[in-house]
């Protein structure tokens, strides 16, 4: 388990014949050991840009990002890859690879350039596929899988990295309701520190310890699901009316859209 600390993070894109366009401004965010933190906000609010900075895909213009007290940008990409695993919405080009091949790619940060796969690597791959319920798919071509199955394979690839922090961009995007719940329950049980963006506010409410709300590149609210998911905030940030009450079977809030 790892801790992630982001302070004063800002990022801009260059604009011809004009000032930079700031897409992230003064972001502060904390993920504690073993904590499941959600990031919500409307399309274009900066969720994916913030995650890209957190896993070192995009260099911020200002601010500090620390993993376990270490400045991410003062350490190597390999050091980060040994500690942070990422699951994105897009599927990789598989080039004829099998499911097992794709999952085994997650072992790369722990191996030298010319190191062959070992029995330990094979064990990690087999365990990860079992965790996501795809053991019988190991020899199948990745390209033949459904979107939901591919998403579970990519989670398995992330798990074999043995990360302390897992970052996910819309992890349930390609999944039907059954596998959405199964995946999130599984993530909760991993004991990892997790930062994940969500479109579905009810899933964020059900599974996150804390939630950050981002709008127009700034964090506008943070706290537990009950503290953050209010009808007033939802209307302010998302521009729609909602009824927010307590889930009849659990303590977390439930959001019902008013049409």
TrEMBL record:
Q: Which UniProt keywords apply?
A: ATP-binding, Nucleotide-binding, Transport
Any Pfam family from its record, for instance, is: ABC_tran
As for family, the record states: Belongs to the ABC transporter superfamily.
Annotated InterPro entries: AAA+_ATPase, ABC_transporter-like_ATP-bd, ABC_transporter-like_CS, P-loop_NTPase
Q: Which SUPFAM superfamilies match?
A: P-loop containing nucleoside triphosphate hydrolases
Please state what the protein is called. ABC transporter ATP-binding protein
Q: Does the keyword Signal apply?
A: no
**PROSITE patterns xrefs:** ABC_TRANSPORTER_1 (PS00211), ABC_TRANSPORTER_2 (PS50893)
One GO MF annotation is: ATP hydrolysis activity
Is Cell wall biogenesis/degradation included in the keywords of this UniProt record? no
- Tell me the ranges covered by the ABC transporter domain, including all copies: 4-241
